[in-house]
Amino acid sequence: MSKFIFVTGGVVSSLGKGLAASALAAILQARGFKVRLRKLDPYLNVDPGTMSPYQHGEVFVTDDGAEADLDLGHYERFTGVSAKKTDSVTTGKIYASVLTKERRGDYLGATVQVVPHIIDEIKAFITNDITDEDFVICEIGGTVGDIESLPFLEAIRQLGNDLNRDNVLYIHVTLLPYIAAAGEIKTKPTQHSVKELLSVGIQPDILLCRADRPIPEEARRKLGLFCNVKAERVIEASDLSSIYEAPLVYHEHGLDKEVCKYFKIDAPAPDLSTWQEIVRRIHSPEGMVTIAIVGKYVQLLDAYKSIIQAFCHAGIANNVKVNLKWIDAEQADIIQEQLRGVQGILVPGGFGGRGVNGKLAAIKFARENSIPYFGICFGMQLAVLETVRNVLGIKEANSTELDPTTKEPVIGLMSEWMDGDTLQKRQVNGDLGGTMRLGAYDCKLLPDSKVARVYGAPLISERHRHRYEVNTAYLKQIETTGLRFVGMSPEGDLPEVVEHADHPWFIGVQFHPEFKSRPFSPHPLFVSFVQAALERFLEKDNNK
Ligand code: GLN
């Protein structure tokens, strides 16, 4: 039977519970276990798909088309296990499911209540779709003490009983603040947070304590005493210079040893050599490359989490540090000035008109100055638009997302596409939630294209999240400019990849390659883009 590990957070938010859960999963995997990670989010949205990145950061997309919390990205990057729809749930989704059952008459005769119906639904989610996993690690979003996380805490408390307490482990991640005036790390907020957990019937088994410095033995002893946890199960998690150090450092502090001891599992020591090599490479780059990212959410870098990580991985692969220069797309008039000296330009995914002119200016600059350009989703659509406007000379060309009545709809709403055997249809005024073309779709690459060489394969599968597409009525005309459509959906009706024949590296992709990059298996497009940016640097040096 699978062992369940529940990760809760206390004292403050943003403690890195997702990272802690991911790192623990990675170490357990390195001990030879099969792991699965899940996220339970207490907010009422059915999924984060309709939330602004400023509210929530990036929306992560799974192969099977879930729009999910960005922590699922960490889970995949640390374990390589592709997350599924069944790995991410919110209060909204739980209620939607209970209410659907109520309308169907499934609870006929019963008064439908939080206890037991909502709690049962949460428990069913946690235990559903598990096969032969040794460990299922579930992270509860939010902070203990929030009103909205109560049903989740109640569900995991009950599971401790239902599944037997020795099959269930509770880890509480807290903060030990350093108070300069006292010259001390303080344990009181953690004591209170554990009290809060105890008040809902959960005794944590392990405390994972975040701190900005090493935790003195005395503080651990004190926490153990007051929180009813063995001192060796009060585990230090101090700040790290790279997130990929977490598996090594947590192992050093005994996290996996305590987990195995708790479950009375006699497991071989973990083989962490892959993580050691990743960390060694991150800390000893042999060069640097500067890539500009032109987007509209540059004030909150969580909005671009997977892209940042994909660049970190591509840096590891190329043995360089990738320095990301964030450029606010809304400052269109000074964009080109800001782009001077960068070795590559990326326009990421996005929605809506704000910042479009800045992005178009950046693309034009990259195209005209032979600077490597990488367009992702919206960044691909805008690359097409830029060429149509400035090379073909169709100045009124637009996307119907930006101008619904444009006379030259080069980018238009996707009205229908095949999702496996199902025909998906969309209309202009349809629902926004969960209705984009989502998840993994195949794409066929032209064998003589650069992108096929980069992938080393003629057929690829990548994750999508978009509502608009390049209008195929314009393809022939666009190709006369040298911008080739080198990747199409297998049916040949949806443009997926463009590249400029007369440019050293100008590639736009309708999908989101960043979601599939991992430190131990970097995404080929990011690796190749960083390499092209490096080569440009060398060329510039040689020309001096
Ligand atoms: N707004 C565009 C669309 O919906 C691009 C989406 C994206 O960049 N993820 O098609």
- The figure for the number of domains is 2
Q: What is the end-to-end distance?
A: 65 Å
**Which shape, going by the Cα principal axes?**
globular
Major sheet summary line: 9 strands, mixed
Report the top-level CATH class of the largest domain: Alpha Beta
CATH homologous superfamily annotation of the largest domain: P-loop containing nucleotide triphosphate hydrolases
Instruction: Give the tally of β-strands.
Output: 25
Supply the number of helical segments.
18
Reading side by side through the largest sheet, how are the strands ordered?
Answer: 13-12-14-15-25-24-23-20-21
Helix content: 25-40%
Structural class: alpha/beta
Average pLDDT rating: 94
Low-confidence stretches: none
Strand content: 15-25%
What does the radius of gyration come to? Answer: 25 Å
Present as ligands are: glutamine
CATH topology of the largest domain: Rossmann fold
Quaternary organisation: single chain
> So, CATH architecture of the largest domain?
3-Layer(aba) Sandwich
